[in-house]
Write a structure and sequence with these properties.
Length: 339
Amino acid sequence: MKIDLPPLICDYLCHRALVDRHPAYLHLDRQGTVLAAGGDLANYRVEPLQTGAPVSTVFDFMEGLLPLEDDACHLECLQPQAGACIDAHIIPESGGYWLLLLDTSEEEQRRQAMQQKANELALLREAQARQLSGGNASTANVERLALPFEAAGERKDLAVLAVGLRGAAAAASTAAPAVYLEQLFLLRRRLAAHFQARAGVLYRQTGDLLMVFFGLLTAATAKEEQALKALMPILQDEWGAAPEKQLGAGTRLRPALGLASGPAIVGLDQTPGAAGLQAVGAPLQAADLLQQRAQPGELLIDQTIFEKAGALQDRFDALPADSVPGTGRVYTYRKKTLT
């Protein structure tokens, strides 16, 4: 696409694009021999540059690239020897090529800094999840914990996941108590760790029921998307939670899942000996009703989650109206099958 712009604007845009980029160039023949060079070559530590030398002896990333089969070639974020981080543009012309070098060291440093911040945020978020989960947030650690809500109470929009471990009744009546509890606790720990690593806060784990909050901690994506992404490996049995011991035929513990979204009141009960994190609201009740209705390995979601499911919407089927009283329209996740 060619854009017709006045020369003054073209000059301005060229200056803005190249400022602090230390542009340099090498003119090459078809075999990659250096014919001429110019620009800020000192920034790339290639001065003095001998004409007539193969370009690969100057920049090893050029080894084997010429002649080009395509119209042009763009190599990003190269770090030759101890020089600057560069973008290299190979531009063909009749009888040879131009090699344009642009310094991207500042961009790379910013990218690395952003990655470091993202890693630190992920670690902080996981630490917060552990501290808040399972009633761990109490008067003793409120001051050192950067709470994402007012300790005295605050209304927050949450995606609430309820997980019921199906098969527990059959397993509890047939398996040895120690073996049954070992597997129950193992599965609960694995589920808790899985969700905590994905911005989930474990609110409750009692017997064969877990409840997890999404949207309580800072994250880059919407709470509904956080929850659905965290659930995909579980729904596809790809998260490595197979029990290490068998409880008996037909007694494998499998999660039945209910996910609902909406406002809830959250806060800390700072009474000595109290459970800490507390929450009340419609999405907690709806998620619990959905997991009670769900079959082992099934996910049921409410209308709000479905509306925020994005590209995953086509993986859900609507259930008949009032199929789960008290939750509104309900959708079930349809697993992909091999054809």
